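User: quick one, sequence for these tokens?
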């Protein structure tokens, strides 16, 4: 029963267009072709002219999670690695992004894929969307930083979310949510892509950092 009820929910965000919904947009005079079920009889009685009620329908929103799985995410000097923190962030985003009929899609990058994207999933809602985020965070292999990098043959170097941002900005319908979870180490060529994406979607950047990246201990010359 719970699954059937969730399937009937269309979302919790207002649409930009009018239609069937619960929030009143405006009342206007009736014109031929309008649904007679939308006639507001109180206004019609006061004005002696048929009027109809137009509503703002609720809509579902798709969230696009861009998850960094580059070698730098395997760094960690505290209780956990940056990749472990990113996994927790991804699961929290999944909980929020798959409620009330909304959907979640996941793209990973930084694992050496030639097009900047690694593991990808189609938008899914409910438990399926949440499991997608969890699987992406746990199955995306973060290489060992001691054996990978620009000088290691055949292994990925610095990564950039530029290509995943371009894919989302061009392919996803406007009005979604884009969340980038990364330490943003490497080239800064993603700034223009981030601006393009922010022009079409609500965009959030979550930076994952380690204490030793800001405060190096005094261990002498290295």
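Assistant:
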């Amino acid at each position: 029963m719970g699954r059937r009820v969730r399937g009937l929910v269309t979302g919790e965000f207002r649409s930009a267009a009018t239609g069937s919904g619960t929030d009143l947009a405006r009342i206007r005079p009736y014109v031929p072709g309008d649904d007679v079920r939308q006639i507001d009889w109180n206004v019609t009685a006061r004005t002696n002219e048929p009027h109809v009620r137009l509503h703002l329908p609720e809509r579902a929103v798709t969230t696009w999670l861009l998850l960094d799985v580059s070698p730098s995410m395997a760094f960690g000097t505290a209780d956990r690695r940056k990749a472990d923190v990113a996994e927790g962030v991804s699961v929290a985003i999944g909980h929020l992004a798959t409620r009330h009929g909304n959907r979640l899609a996941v793209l990973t990058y930084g694992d050496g894929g030639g097009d900047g994207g690694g593991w990808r999933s189609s938008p899914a809602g409910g438990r399926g969307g949440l499991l997608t985020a969890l699987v992406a965070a746990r199955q995306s292999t973060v290489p060992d930083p001691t054996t990978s990098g620009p000088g290691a043959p055949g292994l990925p170097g610095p990564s950039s979310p530029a290509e995943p941002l371009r894919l989302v900005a061009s392919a996803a319908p406007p009005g979604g949510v884009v969340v980038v979870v990364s330490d943003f180490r490497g080239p800064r060529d993603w700034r223009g892509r981030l601006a393009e994406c922010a022009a079409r979607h609500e965009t959030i950047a979550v930076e994952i950092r380690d204490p030793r990246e800001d405060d190096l201990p005094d261990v002498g010359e290295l």
